Amino acid sequence: MDDSYTGQAEILDTIGSFAQRADRRDWEGLVGCLTEMVERDYSSLTGSGPDRLAARKLVVEEWAPVLGSLDATQHLIGLPVVSLNGDSATVTAHFQAQHVLANTDGGDRWTLGGRYDFELRRESGGWRISGVTMTALWSEGNQRVMSRAAESSG
């Protein structure tokens, strides 16, 4: 089998694991999808600039408390385009992310749609995400679901 085809399949598996582990609340598995340090840019949603932080800090201290406070999430990542260059790769894919928290004033669900641009690096354990830029393109529902989850995590 062609090495480029195998590499792309492994990369897509890493991206799929990233989403599924977040939804299953598998925080250690999610950390394992990332390189030790991760470049993150969610500025299109948060207004804050890009940053670089330890994967464990990102997952355990930032994502887990908020996502873990929600009743359910579902991150769907589709239509990926992979560009492979030796031991590095980029993936661009559209996403939809459902966030559910019962008894939230204004509605129990917030859906965000947009694009992920991932940077990946091949390490001894396989392909890991070294950077993620999330570009929010649309949303519907009650964004207060997220602020309420953050408040209760805290």
Fold and architecture overview:
The protein has about 150 residues and is α+β, with helices and mostly antiparallel strands. Helices cover about 35% and strands about 45% of the residues. The protein contains five helices and six strands. It has a six-stranded mixed beta sheet with strand order 2-1-6-5-4-3. The chain starts with a helix and ends with a helix. The relative contact order is 0.20.
**CA-to-CA gap between the ends?**
49 Å
**Poorly predicted tracts of residues:** none
Average pLDDT works out at 95
Tell me the number of helical segments per DSSP (H or I, 4 or more residues long): 5
Radius of gyration: 16 Å
Helix/strand-derived class?
A: alpha+beta
- Could you spell the SSE succession in H and E letters? HHEHEHEEEEH
Number of strands: 6
- Give the helix level as a range of percent: 25-40%
Task: Identify the overall geometry.
Answer: globular
Strand order within the widest beta sheet: 2-1-6-5-4-3
| Binned strand content | over 45%
What distinguishing features does this structure have?
45% strand, globular, single chain, 154 residues, 6-stranded mixed beta sheet, 5 helices, alpha+beta
